[in-house]
Amino acid sequence: MTSTTSDLGFRDTINSLAELTEHYRRPSKLVQSKATPVIDEGCRDFIASSTFVLVGTASAEGYQDVSPKGGPAGFVKVLDEKRLVIPDMNGNNRLDSLRNIVENPRVGLLFLIPGLGETLRINGGAYITTDPDVLDVFADELRRPKTAIGVTVDEGYIHCAKAFRRGGMWTPDEWPATTQRPSVGKILIDHAGYQTDMSGQEFEDFLEASYVEDLAADTPE
User: Fold this and answer.
1) What is the mean pLDDT of residues 12-35?
2) pLDDT in tens, 136-185
3) All domains of the chain, ordered by start, with CATH?
4) Which parts of the chain fold into alpha helices (H)?
5) Of 57, 132, 184, 200, which is least surrounded by CB within 10 A?
6) What's the CA gap between 76 and 87, in Å, rounded?
7) What Å distances lie between residue 151 and 4, 106, 126, 167, 201, CA to CA?
């Protein structure tokens, strides 16, 4: 272990795989063998019930981004045992994930089902597609997207529920009271450096109105 202080002020940093593995027990045989190279029936069923997926990407320079994507159950479509597609629905047009995929066509996905502690992780190649046949698969539930993220699956596996249980994610009694939550409106005003007379709550009301408008734009005409 390196005992010198790093550029960011952290001491005793681990800088080799050998040092890292010394600190942890070996994973069980089940954990080592649980990844599947295809979208099997279990993965397909999980994706069909999922209403939320986190999309992890990185730019060519290695700058990372994690973007949340949500929709009705099954909004992510499985095309076959190696391919799935995620619609790019109405958003803020920063295009962070899409820019990264153009530069570095790799992706890590974390699928969630409300109330379920286990999640599904999928890693693979990523592409931005405008294929009409692909975009048409969303037309019954959503407005036809401009593009979709196509993923070719390298591996998929179930992740255990410990993190969600530790965080009380699906336990309402453990959620903070609304009065204890940070003001998202105030945070956005501070981060953006807005010169505004709006309070944090007023900005949150403005955000809520924009959500209603943007979400309505996702539904078929």
Assistant:
1) 86
2) 999 877 889 999 999 999 999 999 999 999 999 999 999 999 888 888 88
3) 33-166 (2.30.110.10), 176-216 (no CATH)
4) 17-22, 29-33, 41-49, 96-103, 132-135, 162-166, 184-192, 200-216
5) 132
6) 7
7) 41, 9, 5, 30, 39
